[in-house]
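[Automated response] Your request has been received and processed.

Submitted sequence:
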Amino acid sequence: MGCASTKDRVVGFYELTREGEAFRTVFLDSGEMYSIPEAEEERWKTVNGQIHVATDRKIIVLRLNPDRSLTNIAEIHDGKRTDTPKKDRYALRRIKSDTSSDKFVGTYMGWESVALKIVLHKNGANVWEGTDLYDDKCWYVIIGGKIDIIGPRLGHQVFNIESNGDLKWIVEEGREKSEPVSFKKIK
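Generated structure:
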């Protein structure tokens, strides 16, 4: 069995903590990348074994480390590459998730002035508000009894996994909800 490509080894969730604030990023196999809390959508690709993230002003060059974390090593402005000094480098830590488990795959219904529906698939999620599809490009990671959902329209939401398998929405857009909302698993 051969080794996975750099692209296959990069796809997944990452976290960076700087100055006490946590940032989450998801790298998708389609070349899309979403960062939270800013809900920024960017593109990425592999170039000679390195990861190039295209922003509106520059290209950030990342190195894939043996532990599968990512480190910024350079920037490219107007075609000119400049190495990042070691003191200014940061590492995005890969987040291990339990998303491969069928245990959480399913449809959940909640109510907050309108009916809300979340569908967790093995490889992503869809979110409805009422009868309208709100965000069909969401991804989730399961960490320590919580499900973090990231989406370009949805932003960053956190749900507690209740002992009965239902979900409780506890964080909206990075802020704790004053009144958590329960979501019942219906299938």
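Summary generated for your ticket: The longest strand covers residues 132-143. The helical segments are 6-10.
If you did not submit this request, please reply to this message.
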